[in-house]
Structures are given as C-alpha cells and as structure tokens.
Amino acid sequence: MITVESLTKRYGGLTAVDHVSFTAQPGRVTGFLGPNGAGKSTAMRVMVGLTEATAGQATILGRRYTDLPNPGREVGVLLDASAQHAGRTGREILTIAAKTMGLPTSRVDEMLARVSLTDTEATRRVRNYSLGMRQRLGIATALLGDPEVLILDEPANGLDPAGIRWMRDLLRDFADAGGTVLLSSHLLHEIEAIADDIVVIGQGRIVAEGTIAELLASASTRVCAADVTALATALAAAGHEVTLTPDGAVQTDATPAAVGELALAARIALTELRASDGARLEEMFLELTADTQRESRLTDLEGAA
Amino acid sequence: MSTALLTPTEAPAAPRPRTAPAPIPFTRLVGVELRKMFDTRSGRWLLITIAALALVATAAVIAFAPAEFITFESFATAVGVPAGSLLPIVAILAVTSEWSQRTGLTSFTLVPRRGRVLGAKLVATVLVGVVVVPVMLAIGSLGNLLGAAIHGIDPVWDTSAQILAQNVAAFVLVMLIGFTLGVLIRNSPGAIVAYFVYSLVLPGLLAALAAFQEWFRDIHLWVDFNMASTVLYDEHPTGEQWAQLGVSGLIWLVIPLALGLWLVRRSEVK
Lengths: 305, 270
What we know:
- The complex is a heterodimer.
- By secondary structure, chain A is of the alpha/beta class.
- Helix content of chain A is 38%, strand content 25%.
- Chain A folds into 2 domains: 2-215, P-loop containing nucleotide triphosphate hydrolases (Rossmann fold), CATH 3.40.50; 218-275, Alpha-Beta Plaits.
- Chain A contains 12 helices and 13 strands.
- The two termini of chain A are 26 Å apart.
- Chain B is mainly α.
- Chain B has 10 helices and no strands.
- In chain B, helix 3 (72-100) runs antiparallel to helix 5 and helix 7 (188-212) crosses helix 8 (214-223).
C-alpha cells in the first residue's frame, strides 16, 4: 500500500509535483499516467526518498520510505534501468543488491531465471546490454527482496511486444498475490492493458483518477432513430443534454437504458443505440500532451466528471 | 453516475503475512562497499596497476641505485609513489561512481540513509589503505633483500616500526583527501582533476605565497595539509608539528568532508 498525501515538489519557480494525493491499494496495479515531464518520475523519486518533498508526504506500508529498516525487502524499486555501472556484469549487480539486503546468492540465480536472463547474458557487462535486457535486470533487482510493493518507472520502455506481455503477466501475478504495484507510463494503451486503477497526472497535478472501468467508461450514449427530431425532443423534454452529430445521430448524456425506455414510451423506432466509445480518457490525455488550451480543457473535464 | 456500476467488486487479495525485516548492519554495508570498489574493470585495474608499478619501482631501485642507497627507506619511498597517486583515485571513484555511473539510484534506494552508505565507503577506504600500503611495503622489503643480495651487502633496515605506522597513516590521509573531494564534487573526472590540483599544483602555489608574503610564511604550515603531512615521515615530530597537522587537517579534511556529507544528504539523486 502506498499513500501519497498532498505531495509537492518545487524547483525554484517551477512546481514539478503539485499537491498530488492518491493511494495505491494492495492487490491492485495502479497506473501512473502522464505525458513526459508531467512529474511522474519526480513524484516516484520523492516516494522512495531520493528527492526531498517541498511539502506533503508519501508513506509505503504505513511508514516513510526512509524509515524502512531494509527497504529492498519490502519495496522493489526500478526508476531507471540505465542507471547501472556499465562495467559490472548483470549477475554482479544482482549480487551486490542481494548482499546489501542480506539475501543468499542463490536468490540471484532465481531472479535471473525469473526474468529470463541466461547465464551467458548475466556474465556480460551491462555496457553491452540492450535497453530491454536492462529493464529485465532492473525488474530482477526490484523483485530480489521478495517485496510487498513495487514502484516501477516506465518499466515497459525498450521491451519488445513479447517482453511487454511478460511484464504484464508478471505484474498481474504480483498484484493477484496481494502485492501493491505502482507503475508509470506515458502510453495510455500500456496502462489500459495492465492497470486496475489509474492516476492521470499533467503539469504536476492529478487531473483524473479512478478505476480503469470508471475512466474508460463512456460518459455519453449515441443513438439513431428514424425520426431523429422526435427523439431529440423527447430526450430534451426528459431533461437530458442532447447534441446532434454531423452524421445524423444524437449524442446524449442519458444512459443507453434510459434512452431505450424513453424511445419506447415515445414510440420512436431506434436504428442504433450504444454507449459511445470510451474515448474520454484518450481525448483528455491527448489534450494533456498538447500544450495549448490545457487549462481550459481540464476545467471542462473536471466539470464533466 | 452510471459508470459506478462498472467498478470491479472483487475484494483485494489478502496481504501475505510478514514480519518486518531486520535492519541492515553497518558491517554488511562495509563489505558491500569493499566489493564495489574492486568489482569493476576500473577498480580492479587500479589495484593491479598499483601493484605492478610497485614492482617496477622496486626493480628500478635495484637496477639503478648505488649500493649505499640499497636501504629499506629507498624501496619504501619508491613503492610509495604509485600508491600515493593512485590510492586516492580508488577512494575518489568509490564515491563518485554512485553519481557518474548513476548507481546511487540503486544504492540509495536500498539504503536510504545516505550517511550510512558514505560512512561504509569511508571505512572501506581506510581498510583498503591499511591493507594495501603494508602490502606495498612488503614488496619494498623483498626488493631490499634482493637488492642487498645482488650488491653483496647486508640488507639495511633503516626504518622504525613507528615510521612504518606513520607511513600507513600518511597514505590513509591522502586517500581521505580523495574521498572528501569525491563527496564534494560527486563527478569522477572533476574529482580526479581536483585531486591532482590539490596534490601537485597547490603546494607550489602555497610555497610561492610563503616565499613572497611574510604574513603567510608564519601560518603556511598551519594551512598547508600536504606540507604538514610530511611530518608523518619524520622520526620525532614535535608537538607543534602534530598541531599543524591537526589544524591543516581540520581545514582541508574535516570541514570539507562535513560540508560534503551535509550536501549529499540534501541533494537529489537522479
């Protein structure tokens, strides 16, 4: 369990993380989603004590990270797979971590097998590793101490599709066994595929959060009828918001069920009725990524949510 | 809102029962830091180079020194040159690689109290000095025996145990200077350059200043740690010389190290 409370980090005039609060629950994968430079990495560094917060705090398993007696045994951390001494072998890097945590070296072999690094690869220097191999090594380091919590910054970076699939299964199993997973990504579809809960961050602030179902669920219904005008009138009369789309359909905030009942009562034959595609999150995310009109767009979304 | 219906209803899996892990003992950290000093090519080659140069220096004394200079002191001085310039680099890299190679990201997440990591590095550095310098001196001793045999003379052991111990202390002090520069600068090339400025350029500057400025001449030995350290090669240092070593050490070692440690604890690890 990770609890982040009103976490703020300022660099001079720049606020990299702005009153961020959320909870990553055990048994669930929490996706930390945001465009590059949104403050994800800074927030994660604060969580593990590498960066001091300007205000607010983060606790992991109820304690501040820096107060954990042997953090590697409780929290697996991977912030940057490239941050390794290029002259060490993969095995040596794991051995150092195992020794620091007080684990037997047999654990190193277990982890190498777990992340599918072969003996030959493990005896090569990290200088010669691909980014994908470094990510696997980083995951192995994070899992080494059999932690309860995982904090991973962009772990899928550099992995091939099979590797991404492997990572997804691994994190799923970890969460299903009761572990807490917090992983960041700037790719929506990656988060969609793996996370149970999503925290969306932009410009250092949380702009949306909730379960994946909530966030991906449509906020509106698309409906077509033989008599569109009558349908629109009936919906408006029932107090729903109604917009006509250019292709002759009606877009409304009523649920499909409500629309169906209304249409039945008004004896209007429907030709199409469905929840609009869960485009809200993606749209919001695109808006976040684009620099223009960010503020106004976010206000709209917050009003709509 | 309708979307609430889509919220998954399964309860989170029960957390696995756990006991809090024991704290990491400091001795374990020292062991890990010692290992990290020599498990890379640069670390290993530095050590090999120090040993190889000690052998070369020993051979040079045997080959070129006249018989009256075949004494233990000559050999100890000769093997001291490579050790004196390279051991501080071992100390520097032990600290700076955490930043230059960015391993600090892992080291300081596994041990968030940075003072403990640096403390372990400090102890490891001193241990390396305390082990390597006697090994160098042992190489010198063998050279002395061999040289004496070649020249057909009795080996001359003209160095007291006290001087040997002081020798080791002198090497540890230069390593600590390297360590301090590493902590302050936190960048491998920068700290190495700073060390050579400190050990090669600074003494000349301070000596020149003392030669031309009367006011500085009086305090020179109190502020020049390099110079004050040479007392460790003397048989009978005076109380004033020890005091000068202490005062200049405070200026060049204790205060900068304290400042560096304070900065490291506050700095951001990226």
